Predict the 3D structure of the following.
Amino acid sequence: MSFVIARRAVVGAALSLVSAGLVSAPALAHGPSRQKVVEKIEINAPADKVWAIVGNFQDMSWLPPVAKTEGTGGNDVGAKRKLTLKDGGVIEESVTKYDAAGKSIAYKIDTVDVKVLPVNNYAATITVKDAGGKTEVEWKGAFYRGFMNNDPPPELSDEAALKAVTGVYKAGLEALKAKAEK
Amino acid sequence: MRNCASLAWMLAAALVLPASADEAFVTAQGAGALDIIDVATMKPLAHLSIGGKPAGIAVSRDGARAYVTSPEGQFLTVVDARARKVERQIPIKGGPLGVAVSPDGKSVYVADLYGKRLVEIDPDRGETRSVAVGAMASGVAVTPDGGIILVADRDDNAISVIDSGRFERVATIPVGKHPFGVTIDAAGLRAYTADVESDSVSVIDIGARKVIATLKAESRPYTVALARGRIFVANQHADSVSVFDAASLAPVAVLKVGEYPEGIAASADGGRVYVANWFANELWAIDAASLEILEKAQTGDGPRAFGAFISGKR
């Protein structure tokens, strides 16, 4: 139980990296070094069951910090969703690729304040694969840090972006596993 | 007579063969390194530690040197391409990213992403002069006669035209949204920009200083290569390469490649096109005629290979 609480604390902290007085960067500008994160988990549940959860773009309630998902367009390319986090932060995202047969969904963040998630130009893919009755889920993200120029403040550095996204993915996959194995 | 001819042939072969083997100089940004790969075998030849998040690359026409930009480290690394050793590092303030070499190898041009300038470097002496260009200057290319330098001014949605002799900006040409890579054809007549945010390629008549056509690429095109009368475009978010006929500008095919293709360049003879897949850490070889995927090589983490990254006799 304390493990779960600790996980939530990590992701909560990651998603609300609050820092006052930051220089705000234009949403589409970015620094020169793109970062990547890949996290995987094995789930003791059929791939179809796991895909039914993560393949629904309009419901991201499986991710612990998310309080509400509102959106339009279902799972079509271009479909939108607005995630409202438990701490009040907001992330707007849209579908860029959707492959139901291959159980893969790709999406990007359209708008997010770097105080909510310290990244720019964020894109991610979640892929669900059958692994002999069990399921392997892979969550991959590519993004730039929160600060577009040289010499970022620590809370908007490459390391901060990597730490935040890695924290979200690890906690998200653990929560997905818990939900799918119920 | 016959002996003379065969001796001459042997001498010529001896002179040509070592230089004609193409090599790929791939900047691995995450690894902070330059991977040198024999593209005939797709096997690694060397892994040089560079530092400073290396991204841009340009190999001199004679294959003697390779130049690597490190935007975060704020320096240019001069590599002895034949010895496969770092010669020296030259500081460049700002965010040195796009890089190109003059045909005579005497000048290296580096775009400063943050400083709105193009810097001229003498490889033996360091920075000599700079000229103001647009916002977030990214890709750089030089015409085959060395007279004109083009710079992709990403956030101005334009390219700057620089007279290399006077080192002055003589024109700007509006293109699609957020041009990143810029490529000039072998005749020096046309240039192509990959317009990241409009998912397009702008075809530019360099002499007329205007866009003559806009091609529809896939999601987030980054760079363009030219081979066998075809235009190859690396589409980062689509994990694909769009192929067009350079004469008719008609679409030919869309090839599935590895994740996040970024740098793309042709072999010296135009027979192959190589694409660096940033997320997958792979360099892929594509047959420019059949459009088959031929081979893949592993690279260090985060290959960008942004620039003219293939050496070989042209």
